[in-house]
Design a protein that fits this description.
single chain, 471 residues, 19 helices, Sodium/glucose cotransporter, 0% strand, mainly alpha
């Protein structure tokens, strides 16, 4: 346990130092929000991937695989497909368009793209970001409590306090520079964890043959991609898993990475890096859960503690410390990015653009850091009261952002016919559909809310744009 604690503390010290060392690199709000568009492809790719997967990848997905077996590969397939699509069809056009328009945030891009003097697009996009990201960040704090409780027996509440304080500190200090560089290191830790841990687990079970036959003896349905369900119940699981991929093109914290790369021509290299990372990591996350099926005599009371429990049991203490740091890394790399995007929406899109355009850079930086603390506090309060699993909270926020922004952004980049009214209709339709679908039990248990939200929003953008295009 001491070796695990030592590895974990050493990791946290590195992360905190990154925030301190990058503090002086932030001279302007553009530096704080986009690192001055000076990042290379490796940093952008690892930062985008580490930010994109959150604690859901190391906590939520292995927990799902623990109870559903190979059926958990459907979300993995959906995610890898969504990642590839976003890098191929969104990244380059967004990078070039955002620079041409002088936009450094997603609301800023929408307002500039449609010459919206009413400010409705900026205000609507900002409110959507603040609302859903508060849920998203709270899920990361919740995951911190679970990991620290499972490994060090720290009470759940104090585990959340520790995770929240560390994230708030280095994000507030270093801005996008700190977030991007820590994401690079955290992305390495995450992918190493998700490669090493399942390999160690399968070896401990006697090899691949024993692992597969053992799961089959326990329940043959756990070896099937289709699970034990049939009919619509089976299709709902498949569609829901694949549908997660629709959300990637609408996540502001991931889109910010595309906007921050130094040279748009290097995005092809970034695409290859991100794809390899995704295939290794998602496959590993599912395999971790399937190893847990045989490793534990009975399913843990909290299925989402399977990864840290396996790491403590199977790996040498020093390596277990790194693996457990991987779970914390997943939580931190997403929460810091989401805090930064939410803060930028408040400081840049509301205060700077709408209230005080002449505000000095120092004041904007101060307000950005203050906003980081305030949003973090709201997310922490929500995490304390949360009863949902990390997996469910993340998917809800993911759906809200993906349906609100994905269809609008996709058509804005590829179709000149999109109008301001069409973009606004798409945002509102996506948000309203997700809110309604998630909160009505009959609808929620029928299909994952992102799927109807995304396609109804896409239809709204198209129809309203055609109707208002002659204006």
């Amino acid at each position: 346990m001491q070796a695990i604690l030592f590895g974990f503390v050493a990791y946290l010290i590195i992360i905190l130092l990154a925030g301190i060392l990058t503090f002086r690199l932030n001279r302007t709000l553009d530096d704080f929000i986009l690192a001055g568009r000076r990042l290379g492809p490796w940093i952008v790719a690892f930062s985008e991937r580490a930010s994109g997967e959150s604690a859901w990848l190391l906590i939520g997905l292995p927990g799902l695989a623990l109870i559903s077996g190979m059926n958990a590969f459907w979300p993995a397939i959906g995610c890898v497909s969504g990642i590839l699509f976003s890098w191929l069809f969104i990244s380059r056009r967004l990078r070039q368009s955002s620079e041409a328009l002088g936009a450094i945030t997603l609301p800023d891009f929408f307002e500039s793209r449609f010459s919206d003097t009413s400010r409705l697009l900026r205000i609507t996009a900002t409110l959507i970001i603040v609302f859903f990201f508060t849920f998203y960040v709270s899920a990361q704090f919740l995951a911190a409590g679970k990991v620290l409780n499972a490994v060090f027996s720290i009470p759940h509440f104090w585990g959340m306090v520790i995770g929240a304080c560390i994230i708030l500190f280095y994000t507030m200090m270093g801005g996008f520079f700190a977030v991007a560089w820590t994401d690079f290191f955290q992305g390495l830790v995450m992918v190493v964890t998700l490669v090493v841990l399942p390999v160690a687990g399968i070896i401990s079970l006697g090899g691949v043959t024993q692992w597969i036959s053992g799961i089959g003896d326990k329940d043959p349905a756990l070896l099937s991609l289709w699970g034990s369900d049939r009919g619509w119940t089976m299709m709902k699981v498949v569609l829901g898993g694949l549908g997660i991929g629709l959300g990637y093109m609408g996540q502001p914290h991931l889109l910010a990475r595309f906007m921050a790369i130094r040279d748009p021509d290097r995005l092809r290299q970034g695409t290859a890096i991100a794809l390899v990372w995704a295939v290794l990591s998602f496959s590993g996350a599912v395999l971790v859960g399937t190893v847990g099926i045989l490793h534990f005599q009975q399913t843990p009371a909290d299925q989402e503690q399977v990864m840290p429990m396996l790491a403590s049991a199977l790996l040498p203490a020093w390596l277990a410390g790194i693996a457990i740091s991987g779970a914390i890394a997943a939580m931190m790399s997403t929460a810091d990015s989401q805090l930064l995007v939410t803060t930028s929406a408040l400081s840049e899109d509301i205060y700077h653009r709408m209230i005080r355009p002449e505000a000095p850079e120092k004041r904007l930086l101060f307000l950005s850091r203050l906003g980081t603390v305030l949003v973090g506090a709201a997310a922490f309060f929500l995490a304390i009261r949360a009863e949902a699993l990390v997996y469910d909270l993340v998917l809800y926020a993911w759906a809200g952002l993906g349906a609100s922004f994905g269809p609008v952004l996709l058509l804005s980049l590829w179709w000149k016919g999109v109008t301001r009214q069409g973009a606004l209709a798409g945002m509102l339709t996506g948000m309203a559909t997700v809110l309604l679908w998630y909160n009505v039990p009959v609808l929620r248990h029928t299909l994952y809310e992102l799927i109807p939200g995304f396609f109804l929003a896409l239809l709204a953008v198209w129809c309203v744009s055609l109707f208002t295009g002659s204006e």
